[in-house]
């Protein structure tokens, strides 16, 4: 983030302005990624008119950076109409897509609309690995073709590489592919539980050994000693800071109009079909509860060694049962990175030890 | 001296935050912020109103500044913004659809009250 954008974010925070928002325009998708957390059935998506009305309200509320995501955004027949409307409202528009419906014509239209960036999911440089994750034969080729079409139009493309056990060994291949294509590449080892709370997808995530490999790879993280250093004790300013931008200067709206603090924070705070967006943003009790939380208010984490530089996601913590609690996935990352167990991990170990049932000797058989 | 016309580049992204414009260039995603004077210039840049008229009717009444100085500053600013492709400058009126397939609406000011 540039210094100027940081200043703007801080200003938005102070003024309670939702500087950025993500709208998922659909949960329908033309891929069936094995780790996806969504229900792909259409349960009553917002109409074209409803989304346009929401865009009007968001522009009025001060949203500047608008991300369209899904599901797959291009399965909506009206998607270019929505894009055009959003650009007329002068949003800075970013897209998240698998891109398999983008051909030369679509790429040219995206250039004409001055889309800021397009993030495309690529899981491997090898079709047999990528396509086995998306469950669509030929999907890697189509996505890579789309990247070439977009680059030919001068558009900014970012490859998003989600790391799982099945593609762990391919991230360098994906980075090489990104370099060949002339695009950025991000790596994310986080797998999110499904929206209904089902946590089975987490089994697909990388184990600690693989995570350690990533966290020691200096081509990814720079200086490994610095990246893996044990953080200094948190000072008062750090403890007074907010956990992340969710609900503070950013929010998420589902295809059904539900407003959440973040796409990864499934706490419903209102619905734009019933209320004005700005009223939900400003007056929702739940949004204000999220907004009230500082690092010093966190249970367990406040006393943790890692509190000052942990990647703790409040949404993942919420999905574990407590928005003020730890996010175990992030505890694991901090542990793997530094070798120091988190306060949450130590607490769990203590509880496990206390819960051990002491095995007692069987009473001696009575003898006659 | 010929008139100068200025227009917002419809390819730029823009939003007002607490009275100041944030503008992102479509060329390289560079972010700019405009002070309150420059924000008035941006918001008035409809492609049809001559720059000297914007200065005398919208900028000078807001700020205690001599019109000649204000016009020179506004011209410099407009040309600088044009160099970053977030504004268009011409000696003739500029059509609203110039350089964009979309019809530019009046951008919302943001910060709903």
> What's the number of domains of chain B?
1
Shape of chain A: globular
The ordered string of helix (H) and strand (E) elements of chain A is HEHEHEHEHHEHEHHHHEEEHHHHH
Q: Kindly state the mean pLDDT of chain B as a whole number?
A: 85
Task: Describe the largest sheet of chain A.
Answer: 9 strands, mixed
CATH topology description of chain B: Outer Surface Protein A, domain 3
Distance between the termini of chain B: 43 Å
- Strands side by side in the biggest sheet of chain A: 6-5-4-3-2-1-7-8-9
Quaternary structure:
heterodimer
Helix content of chain A: 25-40%
Write down the secondary-structure element order of chain B: EEEEHEHHE
Q: What are the low-pLDDT stretches of chain A, counting only 5+ consecutive residues below 50?
A: none
Q: State the major sheet of chain B.
A: 3 strands, antiparallel
Unreliable parts of chain B: 99-106
End-to-end Cα distance of chain A: 83 Å
User: In terms of structural class, how would the helical and strand content of chain A be classed?
Assistant: alpha/beta
pLDDT averaged over residues of chain A: 94
Q: What's the β-strand tally of chain B?
A: 6
């Amino acid at each position: 983030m540039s210094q100027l954008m940081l200043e703007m974010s801080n200003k938005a925070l102070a003024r309670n302005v939702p500087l950025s928002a993500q709208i998922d325009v659909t949960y329908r998708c033309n891929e069936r990624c094995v780790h996806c957390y969504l229900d792909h059935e259409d349960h009553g998506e917002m109409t074209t008119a409803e989304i346009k009305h929401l865009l009007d309200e968001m522009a009025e509320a001060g949203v500047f950076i608008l991300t369209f995501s899904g599901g797959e955004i291009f399965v909506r027949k009206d998607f270019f109409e929505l894009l055009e409307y959003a650009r007329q409202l002068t949003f800075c528009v970013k897209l998240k897509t698998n891109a398999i419906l983008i051909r030369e014509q679509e790429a040219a239209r995206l250039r004409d609309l001055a889309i800021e960036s397009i993030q495309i999911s690529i899981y491997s440089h090898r079709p047999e690995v990528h396509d086995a994750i998306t469950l669509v034969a030929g999907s890697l080729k189509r996505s890579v073709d789309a990247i070439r079409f977009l680059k030919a139009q001068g558009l900014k493309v970012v490859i998003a590489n989600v790391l799982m056990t099945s593609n762990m060994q391919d991230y360098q291949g994906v980075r090489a592919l990104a370099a060949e294509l002339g695009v950025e590449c991000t790596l994310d080892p986080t797998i999110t539980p499904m929206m209904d709370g089902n946590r089975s997808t987490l089994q697909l995530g990388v184990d600690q050994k693989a995570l350690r490999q990533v966290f020691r790879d200096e081509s990814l993280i720079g200086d490994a000693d610095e990246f893996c250093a044990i953080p200094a004790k948190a000072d008062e300013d750090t403890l007074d800071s907010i956990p992340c931008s969710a609900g503070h200067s950013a929010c998420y709206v589902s295809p059904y109009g539900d407003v959440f603090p973040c796409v990864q924070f499934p706490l419903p705070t209102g619905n734009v079909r019933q209320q004005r967006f700005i009223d939900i943003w400003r007056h929702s009790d739940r949004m204000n509860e999220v907004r009230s939380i500082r690092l010093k208010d966190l249970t367990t984490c406040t006393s943790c060694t890692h509190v000052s530089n942990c990647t703790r996601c409040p949404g993942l913590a919420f999905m574990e049962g407590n928005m003020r609690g730890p996010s175990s996935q992030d505890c694991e990352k901090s542990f793997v990175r530094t070798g120091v167990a988190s306060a949450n991990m130590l607490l769990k170990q203590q509880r496990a030890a206390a819960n051990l049932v002491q095995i007692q000797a069987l009473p001696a058989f009575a003898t006659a | 001296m010929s008139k100068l016309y200025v227009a917002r580049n419809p390819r730029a992204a823009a939003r007002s935050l607490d009275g100041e414009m944030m503008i992102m260039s479509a060329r390289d995603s560079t972010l700019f912020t405009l002070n309150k004077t420059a924000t008035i210039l941006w918001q008035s840049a409809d492609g049809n109103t001559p720059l000297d008229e914007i200065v005398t009717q919208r900028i000078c009444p807001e700020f205690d500044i001599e019109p000649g100085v204000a016009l020179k500053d506004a011209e410099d600013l407009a040309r600088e913004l044009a160099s970053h492709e977030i504004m268009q400058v011409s000696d003739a009126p500029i059509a609203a659809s110039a350089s964009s397939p979309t019809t530019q609406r009046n951008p919302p000011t943001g910060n709903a009250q």
